[in-house]
Recover the amino acids of this structure.
């Protein structure tokens, strides 16, 4: 009996030790993936992002070399945009057919592989290793997939210190490939935007095609907006955007961050027309890319500012960016030189939100920003707008101004965000009496409900 009890106790202790070791390994893995996600969200510039992916994979898996092989959909080929390791530069011009070699097989099938002995694998192609004179002993290769589409292949070769890769290493590389796919998708989206806008800017030189091309630009620009309304937990939101021309520089964005938190942003680019539209669209991509990188709105604004600041550019943008907890009404916000927001009660009383004013984004790369914080009361609304509202002109040359804004808000106290946004825009249009707007108009109304 005693012997059986000791044996059972020993088994229980061994199981507890194994469980604790597994839990510790999972915690280390989660910390590693968190650091990986932060690095991958730090940029959407092609060369920099791809190199970060490679260096991260190589370091995480303790490999001698790594590469990301992208898919050329038009030519149905794979190409080495970036490769790390001593012979990385010699790899970049090589192209593989879909299905060729292990990487081509992974891209074609969408399956991950662990190759303990590359030379003995029937799928092995020695084109790359012969070109660079770097033998491949063992390797891991996983597909990089976003929204069901294979963007490329991520591989690491030769475990350091003559080691061998394990199944746990393959799983870890698959986990690294997941945030890498999101980062690559953002990069490709940004590049497609720049390419399409640049093409559009060149073609607008032909006067007879101006109208149709501007309509295309308007469609492209509006495609980056998240919609015009949202509802999450106790929060309802509505937004409106009216460019003074076919395209403009005002912007708004809202993004669900998880855990019933909502990122809110409204901004105004310093120019109008096509230059402002280009800058605005770039800001929308940066906001999307940086939204989940930090808990602090000021940190998000500062990071975007570093990305868009350019000594040769005269473009800048005012911006109000906030993170709202839709359950508690807690609002953290950062004001980059934007129009003062208002808090609107259900009785129509509007009070200015206290903010710390900072320089707009795109002025100086090293500008520092700070957060402020309040708690919205149940039934209270936050109203954001651009200066196209307050600087709207009547036929007599008068401005709508702050008084006009407060008077319009006084009639919006009991309205839904959608009704309030529409009413504010309608008040400006009535004041202008059909006069063409001189500036873009953007409005966002966010209401924290009572239940």
């Amino acid at each position: 009996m005693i012997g059986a009890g000791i044996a059972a106790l020993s088994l229980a202790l061994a199981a507890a030790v194994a469980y604790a070791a597994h839990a510790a390994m999972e915690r280390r893995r989660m910390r590693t993936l968190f650091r990986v996600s932060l690095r991958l969200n730090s940029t959407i510039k092609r060369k920099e992002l791809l190199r970060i992916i490679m260096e991260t994979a190589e370091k995480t898996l303790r490999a001698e070399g790594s590469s990301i092989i992208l898919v050329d959909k038009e030519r149905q080929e794979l190409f080495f945009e970036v490769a790390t390791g001593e012979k990385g530069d010699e790899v970049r011009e090589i192209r593989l057919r879909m299905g060729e070699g292990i990487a081509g097989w992974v891209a074609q099938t969408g399956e991950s592989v662990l190759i303990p002995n590359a030379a003995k694998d029937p799928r092995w192609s020695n084109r790359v290793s012969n070109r660079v004179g770097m033998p491949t002993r063992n390797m891991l290769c996983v597909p990089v997939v976003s929204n069901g589409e294979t963007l490329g292949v991520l591989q690491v070769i030769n475990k350091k210190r003559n080691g061998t890769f394990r199944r746990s290493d393959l799983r870890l590389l698959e986990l690294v490939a997941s945030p890498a796919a999101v980062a690559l998708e953002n990069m490709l989206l940004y590049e497609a935007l720049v390419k399409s806008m640049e093409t559009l800017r060149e073609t607008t030189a032909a006067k007879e095609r101006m109208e149709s091309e501007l309509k295309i630009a308007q469609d492209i620009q509006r495609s980056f907006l998240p919609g015009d309304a949202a509802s999450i937990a106790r929060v309802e939101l509505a937004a409106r955007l009216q460019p003074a021309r076919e395209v403009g520089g005002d912007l708004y964005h809202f993004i669900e961050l998880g855990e019933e938190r909502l990122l809110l942003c409204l901004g105004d680019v310093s120019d109008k027309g096509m230059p402002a539209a280009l800058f605005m669209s770039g800001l929308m991509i940066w906001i999307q890319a940086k939204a989940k990188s930090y808990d602090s709105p000021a940190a998000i604004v500062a990071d975007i500012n570093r990305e868009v600041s350019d000594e040769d550019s005269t473009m800048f943008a005012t911006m109000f960016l906030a993170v709202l907890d839709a359950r508690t009404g807690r609002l953290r916000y950062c004001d980059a030189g934007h129009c003062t927001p208002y808090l609107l009660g259900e009785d129509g009383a509007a009070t200015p939100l206290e903010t710390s004013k900072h320089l707009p984004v795109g002025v100086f790369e090293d500008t520092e920003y700070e957060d402020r914080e309040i708690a919205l009361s149940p039934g209270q609304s936050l109203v954001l707008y651009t200066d196209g509202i307050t600087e709207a002109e009547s036929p007599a040359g008068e401005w709508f101004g702050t008084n006009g804004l407060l008077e319009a808000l006084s009639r919006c106290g009991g309205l839904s965000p959608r009704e309030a946004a529409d009413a504010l825009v309608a008040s400006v249009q009535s004041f202008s009496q059909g006069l063409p707007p001189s500036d873009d108009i953007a409005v966002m109304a966010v209401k924290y409900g009572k239940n």
